């Protein structure tokens, strides 16, 4: 099955056209809104204001400022060592999934509480549900295997206006399951999304962190510290993303009537052939590969559905238009 991006990467900085973070950060405005950011801001080699992106504390504080400024989330914090993801790239994933739904809806992104999304592995940061709800009014379920991450994500939801009731965070009781134990028997989701652990071992994750730190200009021989943080289960999985996404594809078959589109980020292009083969074997009706890029970083979303074109239209009628599907009449 060939790679066939639904949307080419956006021009200029590569971010999606609706991404709020396409331009340079306005550090003056961010510091006014979040004074705690000020100690981390300095002139870089190009004479412009920036932060040290190799410093986890600086990255986390920048995230706090961005969430406050752009998404009306004044209370956001995560424990030391937990993943503080780059918000622009996370927003891109949400916007490209919105485009995927728009294709079925005559070019208009369906918004509001009728649209429900499952974020597999939401983490303590709860970033995808925050962005998806603030941008499109979607309702979310976030799942995670880590009780600490679930507790912290719930605190973020409870502490910010408008998130409670729109975002439900659930503990996944089995580390080997993706959807089972989370999706209830009669529960429907228009989308599932996931940022899987990309590495196959702790050693591989640390080597990748070391390369990233060197690229950011921070040398040293000490044990590498990930600039975005991350617990073991957030960074690596036995067998890497190829095994993780294979399990996800296999399990998605069991939820084929409960979800319209399944999706996952894919970091390594060599993961794609095996995933395509599994989805074809399991009878996916449509598989999309959506390219994303931010600067030098290139990644992709793979999305799939088990519903054919007629079933997708029935889904739209029931879920987004509020009327009976033609087949129900």
UniProtKB/TrEMBL annotation:
<keyword id="KW-0808">Transferase</keyword>
<keyword id="KW-0698">rRNA processing</keyword>
<dbReference type="InterPro" id="IPR010286">
    <property type="entry name" value="METTL16/RlmF"/>
</dbReference>
<dbReference type="Pfam" id="PF05971">
    <property type="entry name" value="Methyltransf_10"/>
</dbReference>
<dbReference type="GO" id="GO:0070475">
    <property type="term" value="P:rRNA base methylation"/>
</dbReference>
<comment type="function">
    <text>Specifically methylates the adenine in position 1618 of 23S rRNA.</text>
</comment>
<keyword id="KW-0963">Cytoplasm</keyword>
<keyword id="KW-0489">Methyltransferase</keyword>
<dbReference type="InterPro" id="IPR016909">
    <property type="entry name" value="rRNA_lsu_MeTfrase_F"/>
</dbReference>
<dbReference type="GO" id="GO:0052907">
    <property type="term" value="F:23S rRNA (adenine(1618)-N(6))-methyltransferase activity"/>
</dbReference>
<dbReference type="InterPro" id="IPR029063">
    <property type="entry name" value="SAM-dependent_MTases_sf"/>
</dbReference>
<comment type="similarity">
    <text>Belongs to the methyltransferase superfamily. METTL16/RlmF family.</text>
</comment>
<dbReference type="GO" id="GO:0005737">
    <property type="term" value="C:cytoplasm"/>
</dbReference>
<protein>
    <recommendedName>
        <fullName>Ribosomal RNA large subunit methyltransferase F</fullName>
        <ecNumber>2.1.1.181</ecNumber>
    </recommendedName>
</protein>
<feature type="region of interest" description="Disordered">
    <location>
        <begin position="1"/>
        <end position="20"/>
    </location>
</feature>
<keyword id="KW-0949">S-adenosyl-L-methionine</keyword>
């Amino acid at each position: 099955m060939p790679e066939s991006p639904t949307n080419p990467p956006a021009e200029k900085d590569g971010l999606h056209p609706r991404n709020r973070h396409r331009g340079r950060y306005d550090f003056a405005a961010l510091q006014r809104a979040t004074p705690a950011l000020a100690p981390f801001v300095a002139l870089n080699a190009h004479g412009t204001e920036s932060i040290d992106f190799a410093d986890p504390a600086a990255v986390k504080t920048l995230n706090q400022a961005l969430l406050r400024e752009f998404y009306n989330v004044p209370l956001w914090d995560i424990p030391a060592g937990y993943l503080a993801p780059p918000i622009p790239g996370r927003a891109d994933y949400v916007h490209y999934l919105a485009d995927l739904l728009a294709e079925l809806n005559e070019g208009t992104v369906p918004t509001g509480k009728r649209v429900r999304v499952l974020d597999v592995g939401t983490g303590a940061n709860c970033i995808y549900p925050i962005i998806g709800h603030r941008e499109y009014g979607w309702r979310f379920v976030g799942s995670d295997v880590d009780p600490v991450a679930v507790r912290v994500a719930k605190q973020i939801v409870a502490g910010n206006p408008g998130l409670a009731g729109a975002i439900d965070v659930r503990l996944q009781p089995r580390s080997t399951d993706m959807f089972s134990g989370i999706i209830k028997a009669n529960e429907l989701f228009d989308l599932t999304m996931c940022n899987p652990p990309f590495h196959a071992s702790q050693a591989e994750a640390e080597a990748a962190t070391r390369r990233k730190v060197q690229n950011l200009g921070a040398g040293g021989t000490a044990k590498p510290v990930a600039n975005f943080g991350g617990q073991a289960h957030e960074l690596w999985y036995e067998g890497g993303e190829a095994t993780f996404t294979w399990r996800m594809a296999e399990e998605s078959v069991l939820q084929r009537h409960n979800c319209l589109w399944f999706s996952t980020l894919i970091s390594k292009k060599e993961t794609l052939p095996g995933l395509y083969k599994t989805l074809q074997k399991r009878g996916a009706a449509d598989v999309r590969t959506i390219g994303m890029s931010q600067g030098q970083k290139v990644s992709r979303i793979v999305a799939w559905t088990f519903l054919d074109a007629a079933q997708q239209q029935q889904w739209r009628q029931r879920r987004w238009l509020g009327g009976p599907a033609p087949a129900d009449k």
